[in-house]
Amino acid sequence: MNHYIEKLSKSRNEAFQYDLFHLLLTEGADFVGRYHFAQLARTNYVPTTETVIPFNALMSYTGNDAFCHCFVDDYQFCRLYRNFDKYIPFMQRTKAMASSDFSMYRNYSTEHQIWNCRKNRAVAYAMQQIKGFETIPTAGFGGPETWEWCFDGLPTRSSLAITTNGVRNDPEARRLFIGGVNALIFQKKPTALIICGEVDRWIYDKYPGLKIVRIPSFSEQWNERRCA
Q1: Helix %, strand %, coil % for the chain, to 5?
Q2: 205 to 30, 201, 208, 212: CA distances (angstroms)
Q3: CA distances from 74 to 29, 45, 55, 77, 221 (A)
Q4: pLDDT of residue 20
Q5: Taking phi first (over 0 means left), then psi (-120 to 50 degrees means alpha), and beta for anything else, what does residue 94 get?
Q6: Order of strands across the sheet with 211-215?
Q7: In sequence order, what are the residues at sequence separation of 6 or more whose Cβ sits closer than 8 angstroms to the Cβ of residue 194?
Q8: What is the rounded average pLDDT of the residues 157-162?
Q9: How does pLDDT run across 213-226, given as a tens digit for each residue?
Q10: Whose CB among 9, 102, 125, 171 lies 3.0–4.6 Å from 116's, allowing a Cys bridge?
Q11: Rounded to whole angstroms, what are the CA distances from 37 to 30, 125, 142?
Q12: How far is the CA of 36 from the CAs of 20, 31, 87, 100, 224, in angstroms?
């Protein structure tokens, strides 16, 4: 991440002119696929800590062994894209993080979905340049029309992170989620899936050889604290 900090240490005007479209996030990256997403590196890391925090709790976290995820509302982590260097010290306090998950809802326009996917790759690439902790790439997807390009830039045979947020009580969302997960596994052959939220039995039955690590969602943790 030194190149990022060095350029930002120049005059703010010079940095702003260069980074108007956040080019520093992907400086040095290889770009792949139809829409030239940044190619991410493979990792075999899986969370081993019992401490899981969402990104909106990162700045107040005082430990050093948490696994952090971005499976919360987009506005909570959009600052990672807009002002990445500010949050490097906070990220380095964690043991590992799942990268950003800018939404790709099926009612978004194709342009919006592509732009959010591009941002996800840019943030993940920048995170992978930071020394001292692991980054697990997050795989986001929409309907079948996105499956031809939305996995571009994700590493093959790597740990990947996904979420079941929003699919449990929506039959159509659940159907598309199952199709998207099948497409992801077929294309990228992950060694492990870190799944945030409730996990249905079907994925264990269909992919018995795939390592699945479940982490609690923000809403699950919130409900647990409220009940306590």
Answers
A1: 45, 15, 45
A2: 36, 6, 6, 12
A3: 24, 25, 10, 6, 18
A4: 53
A5: beta
A6: 159-163, 192-196, 211-215
A7: 46, 47, 98, 136, 159, 160, 161, 162, 213, 215
A8: 98
A9: 999 987 766 666 66
A10: 102
A11: 8, 10, 17
A12: 18, 5, 26, 18, 41
Count of structural domains within the chain: 1
Alpha helices in 158-199 (DSSP H): 171-188
- Model confidence pTM above 0.90: no
Residue 189 tokens, joined = 């052959």
- The token pair at 36 is 């030239």
Amino acid, res. 169: N
The continuous run of DSSP H or E covering 2 comes out as helix 2-8
Closest CA to 146 of 121, 119, 109, 175: 109
The pair of three-digit structure tokens given for residue 215, joined into one six-digit string:
């982490």
**Span between the terminal Cα atoms of the chain, in Å:** 41
In whole angstroms, what is the distance from residue 206 CA to residue 223 CA? 30
Question: Residue 125 sits in which domain range?
Answer: 2-227
Q: Which residues pair with 211 in a beta bridge?
A: 192
